[in-house]
Amino acid sequence: MKKSKNKLANTLLFPKGIELLHNPLLNKGTAFTAEERKELQLEGLLPPFVMSQEEQKIKVLSSVRVQTTDLDKYIYLTSLQDRNEALFYRLVIDEIEEFMPIIYT
């Protein structure tokens, strides 16, 4: 009984699978390692490659910069925040001079 209670509590405290991917506070996108993907039931739910947060940041940064207006950049950034807060804040902190006027206007 105790083992099943712990498993239930662990599941409630830390979601797995699609529920994890829908939680922007916990979602790391493609930064989940192969081991994490298996343990957290993410296999098949993410692209079959691992990309570090730094690699993700570089990719997202180039995507934001091709947006033609500040409104488009704002929409892109808020969409990122809704999916992956850690990556959003890493990007904003590292590029604060570029993005603060867009986020706080």
Automatic annotation (TrEMBL):
- GO MF entries: malate dehydrogenase (decarboxylating) (NADP+) activity
Q: Which Gene3D superfamilies match?
A: 1.20.1370.30
Which residues fall in a coiled-coil region?
none
Q: Write down the InterPro entries for this protein, in alphabetical order.
A: Aminoacid_DH-like_N_sf
One GO biological-process annotation of the entry reads: malate metabolic process
Protein's UniProt name: Malic enzyme N-terminal domain-containing protein
Q: Which organism is it from?
A: marine metagenome
